[in-house]
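ARCHIVE CARD
SHELF: 3
SLOT: left
DATA:
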Amino acid sequence: MRNQPKYNFFKNTTYALKGFKDLLQTETSFKIEFVIVVLLTPVIFFVDVSLTHKLLLFISLMGMLLAEATNSAIERVVDLVTLDHHVMAGRAKDVGSSVVFLSIIIFVVTWGIILLDMFLK
């Protein structure tokens, strides 16, 4: 049996917002990507593309934040386990960084293709 309190939507939302606030306060990369999200989200509403393309733009944009949050969680857990240099700790952190890198590639390619297609029509 898991040592976990009964599910409470409001408490869980509070935990999520606490984590989000912590990311904004402590993670520079997350702050930069969050600013990009804030600046580009309104663009989605004004570009003349299909709803499907708008959803792809939004999903690829949010994917960056999801990847950065996941990477931060991996780094924090690794640092909790050991602050000493360890090959496996470094590999775990590198994999987390590659998730962020891949999400940025997906973002750039998705936005590039959709916006290029829109301008070429």
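SLOT: right
DATA:
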Amino acid sequence: HHHILIDEPFMKYGEIIPMDAKHLHYGKGDTVVSLKLKPGPHSLTLQFANGMHMSYGEQYSSTINIYVK
């Protein structure tokens, strides 16, 4: 399943993705989220992991940079 990491880089293979405000988990088929971010630059990283939240590493991640007005 996938996770969105807010202002965090990809997680190395095998690292456990924490459950906190910067690491959003989508293990129940979620497809939409509304984020409330402070104005300014941010990065959003999509990170895939297994059922135990162990990261599949950089090859299964993608990052975009955004600017919030």
